[in-house]
Amino acid sequence: MQQSKKTFRFIIYGGFIVLILAAVWYFSRPEPPEVELAVVTYGNVESTVVNTRAGTVKACQRARLAPALGGQIAHILVDEGDNVEQDQVLLELWNADLIAQRELAERQLSMAQERRREACIIAENAWRESQRTQQLVDKGFISPQAAEDADANARARQASCDAAISDIKRAKAQIRVTLAGLERTVLKAPFAGVVAQVTGEIGEYATPSPPGIPMPPVIDLIDTSCLYVMAPMDEIDAPKIRIGQPARITLDAMPEISFPGRVRRIAPYVTEVEKQARTVDIEVDFSELPDNPLLAGYSADVEVILDSREHVLRIPTQALRQNNKVWLLSQDNTLIERQLETGLANWSFTEIISGLDDGDRVLISFDLEEIKPGIVVRPKASETPVS
Fold it and tell me: What pTM was computed for the model?
């Protein structure tokens, strides 16, 4: 009996010690690693390509203007930042000599018109005199020689009238020549826009650009009513792009918003620059311009949307591992490796065709070496939603 009591106490004490050791192990055991998870939900997925280097906002019309004729600048009629209308005069060169030539040509025209009037009146009178002389010859009152003399005189007078008419045409042509010369001394706006820069000064000599030798423009004119973005795309992505495809435009000056656009042109050649990837330039129109004024020259990025799917199951692309595998969190917080079948993808999201369900949670943090399939993990307090 006493022996049985000793055995019973031994069992009690041993069980107590085991409980204490178990409690010590339980409360001193290491915590499961904390991981960041994303909840799988439905949303939109797009297949996109982006430019390799920063693009540039450009104006549909931009003219760096200089007079067609060299000369001294006499008048600058606009300032930088002015809005101008089409055909508005921007600048005038000294042209007093051409104005004098125009006035001389106009006076010569006036004199030629008066001479024509005089010569043609005399010619009309000579023809009438010739007709009367011929009537007298027919009646036998005078000799035929008198009729021939009168007819010759009428033809001579008519020739003088015709010559005077030719003088008028020559005088008008001379006026057109002088006006053309004057036109070359006046710089007009070829389209409505904003004066971006004026580099000339009154009294300076403006020189037109000789063939093959660019000269600085006197006035830089920009049409800000029509803007687009030119961006270089990698030659590998270029075959995927089509005219008319939608795009998103982001500006470094306005990083918080993006603007819808559409591809309007794809360059028919590849740009090759030393020590840079070969690219193909594309042009993208703004579908709608922002309320804030855009400036030509802004740096911009273009994301061309090749294809899109709405309301599909998706996960963050960063959750994908090699061979389209993910680590799925099971009900008991154990990581399970799962093979997926995927669809459209971009840098942000990947479409899931099979392998996951709505509400599943997948691992998106792989920075801890001890994390691997089969271990128990502890989700962070705030899970990353797939938004």
Answer: 0.64
